[in-house]
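User: Sequence recovery, please. Input:
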């Protein structure tokens, strides 16, 4: 995987679940966190969104805008927004061009269903979380990309498997360090 950190962010024009188009330039001058879902039924992805939402006020206070990106379109996106009460835009990248640009390709069966994933799912099951049905590609990798106010990639995290997401605190630390507020 090629790291894009330090490089200009990839321009995009993606439609959200409500039909509005979002472009990279719409977020110029702000921090932008792109959260790529593996598929909309992915429990660890949903848990990552929950963890980000627990820091929603701090993210907003630091000037971080959040966009959630999925490749699934149609009723499944509307259902996801409703189930999760998602307040951030859910953008649809059906062609997966943005996924590919940031190195989020498909993973092998072992990477998707290895011990780390099984352990992550077991912990989530014990906390009462249940998977949702999704017609999505379960071999798709996800990740997080943090873009600074100048449009430069400050952090690129491509997951090794479904259980591999950056800690929210690590994302906040990058923003704080660059803002001079750490």
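Assistant: Recovered sequence (182 residues):
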């Amino acid at each position: 995987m090629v790291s894009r950190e330090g490089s200009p962010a990839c321009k995009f024009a993606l439609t959200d679940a409500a039909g509005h188009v979002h472009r990279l330039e719409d977020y110029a001058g702000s921090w932008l966190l792109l959260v790529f879902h593996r598929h909309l039924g992915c429990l660890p992805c949903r848990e990552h969104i929950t963890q980000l939402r627990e820091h929603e006020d701090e993210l907003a206070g630091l000037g971080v805008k959040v966009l959630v990106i999925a490749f699934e379109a149609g009723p499944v996106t509307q259902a996801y927004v409703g189930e999760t009460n998602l307040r951030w835009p859910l953008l649809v990248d059906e062609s997966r061009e943005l996924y590919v640009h940031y190195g989020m390709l498909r993973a092998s069966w072992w990477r998707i269903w290895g011990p780390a994933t099984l352990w992550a799912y077991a912990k989530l099951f014990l906390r009462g979380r249940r998977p949702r049905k999704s017609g999505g590609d379960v071999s798709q990798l996800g990740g997080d990309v943090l873009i600074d106010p100048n449009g430069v990639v400050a952090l690129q995290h491509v997951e090794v498997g479904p259980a591999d997401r950056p800690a929210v605190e690590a994302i906040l630390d990058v923003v704080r360090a660059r803002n001079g507020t750490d």
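The first strand starts at residue 13 and ends at 16.
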